[in-house]
Amino acid sequence: MARPRIKDVARHAGVSEKTVSNVLNDYVHVSDRTRRVVQEAIDHLGYRVNLAGRHLRSGRTGIIALVVPELDVPYFAELARHVVREAESRSLTVLIHQSGADREREKAALAGFGSDFVDGVILSPLALAPEDLRAHTGIPPTVLLGELLTDGADHVAIDNEQAAREATEHLLALGRRHILAVGGRDDEGVGTAHARTRGFRAALAEAGIAHDPASLLPVEAFHMSDGAAAVRRVLAQGARPDALLCLNDQLALGALRTLHAYGARVPEDVAVIGFDDVEGGRFSVPSLSTVAPDKEAVARVAIDLLLRRIDEATRPDSRLDDADRHGSASPQDRVVAHRLVLRESTEGATGREGVW
User: Exposed, middle or buried: residue 349 (CB in 10 Å: 0-12, 13-18, 19+)?
Assistant: First the structure.
């Protein structure tokens, strides 16, 4: 059986082909009755939009790429869900790609994967360098999440420095003075971990606590095993912190395990706070205090910025050189909201006393 076409839908619904097209493109000036009749015809005939034809007419595929370091890291999985949901509300399809925090893979994403298959890219980089953005020519419209590479593309993130400062101030307000930053970085940089470390140090300085390089616990990666190992290492050396600022929830959950193994009570002996508000932290024992980024807002703002750049790149008068692909406007740096979510790991158990 031949694939139904727009003219078949129009004949079945008793309307013009232009009316069917208006319904498919969600044109506002279509009556509810006409829209319903056309939709019933579409459903009855099993009509599907010809994306190839639409691409030829508009210069778009309706497909965007989301590139994240690791899909099995809960934050990125949750973020991907929000991006897909937001994209679907704009009739976009999302191709999800895992970079493995590999620089060459992230550069490949900047190159649009070597084809015109995607209209644009939302990229959460970990290994990419600022010069990679400047060196790439003819890159598709791109929005960066998280890591700030200073220039070259639109960027969406929370204020990581301020968020870490607020989390550290909360620990200080609890009377904690020997606070360690799990995942903290003592070198200069513009990445998320560096920004959170600066916020941590600023809060301590404001409280009159001198910086001690030993308060920063470096990690190889930001997994639970890395958090557990970092805290195990420092406890084995005799350190007895009274609070941990963990630069993501995975590190915090690993830290909780090590503290339990050493017999430390949380939060009575050691208060713990993380970042990202992933689902696992709500069900850990004790439940995890955390900095919660507005993930829905991250997804919404990223899609908004990307669609604007795609519109600029596909204008009929665009010559698609670098300036056109990124638009005439300067790259935008958008900051979305965050909030402290205080749970048992800093506030103490809220249920009845006793076990079992």
Answer: middle
- Supply the pLDDT for residue 322: 44
Torsion of CA 81, 84, 90, 93, to 10 degrees: -170
Report which secondary-structure segment, H or E, holds 43.
helix 32-45
**Structure tokens, 84:** 């897909």
Strands across the sheet containing 120-123: 93-98, 63-68, 120-123, 142-145, 154-158, 333-336
pLDDT band at residue 58 under the 50/70/90 scheme: low
Question: With the C-alpha atoms ordered 23, 29, 34, 35, is the resulting torsion angle positive or negative?
Answer: positive
273 phi/psi in degrees, rounded to 5: -135, 145
Q: Going by DSSP bridges, is the β-strand pair 63-68/216-217 parallel, antiparallel, or unpaired?
A: unpaired
Instruction: Return the residue matching tokens 């920063």.
Output: 216
Q: Whole-angstrom Cα distance, residue 215 to residue 245?
A: 10
pLDDT at 24: 80
